[in-house]
Amino acid sequence: MRSFEEDLQALFRHLCIDGIMTNLLKEVKQLKALILGGTGVISRQIVERGLMAGHEVAVFNRGTKRLPFAGDVEWIHGDKSDRAGFAKLMEGRRFDAVIDMISFNETDARSTVETFKHSAGQLIICSSVAVYKRPYRSNPIREDAEELFDNPVFGYAYEKAQMERYLQQVIREGELPVTIIRPSLTYGVGAANLGVLRQNYNIVHRIRSGKPLVMFGDGTTPWSFTFAPDLAKAFVGAIGNKRTFGQAYHATNEEVRVWNDLYLEFGRILGIEPNIVHIPSDLLIRANPGLFAHLYYEKGYSGLMDNAKVKRDIPSFEVAISLNEGLQMMLDWYEAEADKVDADKDALEDRLADLHAQWGRQMDALNV
């Protein structure tokens, strides 16, 4: 297969403008990038955008899912949790950038750093805005104003924060150029995290069936919902970008919404007004800590981020997908291949809505 530069040369020769071609190719640099993951909601978009940018892309994962990307991708199969096996598999390989989408704690990140510190030009690692300690110190939230989460009771945020503390040490010691990107709540094709109960297609099912949808709090917490094709621009824009070395960024949508809008916008697309009932997050977490902890510890606070830093250092990052457009994308995907009702979550949402109705009747009885 011809290289990206060869394709450009052929195009410009055809147009008889070899002089312009020469100048342009001086500015085009094809880099070799490895994505650890590569088939997740965000990482599949990073692969596609990396190919669009002309990079040579390799993907490492366990090989349980193979996606048809719009270009040639090298597939490397293995299990990153097998630390020794992972390091052995990467021996002799060199990459301009390694994008790690599958590290969730310090141990995971340490394995990546130890494996690539002598064979990669840069590590770009996916963290999360969950690492910010609540309540925030700034609004909209700025990276330089916030502290890292320090409460082990919310394991996801705590472990990601511990991972970042380790990476800051790597940055200080100069072992490897590191760029940290912190997504906020991000949706896209393949997502399993949409909705208060992460009920996904159930949202469409319940709106069409006239069933209530449970919202945490009063639904007016400000938020900006991000979609994976936009977020991928930040990761790919960081590849080989020395301005990002040693830096941490959040990269989010900036369309100001509130949480109720998630269901209301689905209703507008479907042409059906949803029935939303509101339950405090401190009660939801008692009903199912594993399912609702993220609401209580993270999403009950404003999710509006200041993107000035990422826009300054990664000019290619721009948000193009509105909430309406993104949810239409999700609906199209659901109806094409993911229109499955999660019966357990549907029953749980029914039960929560019934409890809400009972509380309402009890409150009515007090109004005498």
TrEMBL record:
Protein keywords: Coiled coil
Coiled coil region boundaries: 331-358
Name assigned to this protein: NAD-dependent epimerase/dehydratase family protein
Pfam family for this entry, one: Epimerase
NAD-dependent epimerase/dehydratase domain location: 33-244
InterPro entries the record matches: Epimerase_deHydtase, NAD(P)-bd_dom_sf
Similarity comment: Belongs to the NAD(P)-dependent epimerase/dehydratase family.
Lineage: Bacteria, Bacillati, Bacillota, Bacilli, Bacillales
UniProt keyword Cell inner membrane present: no
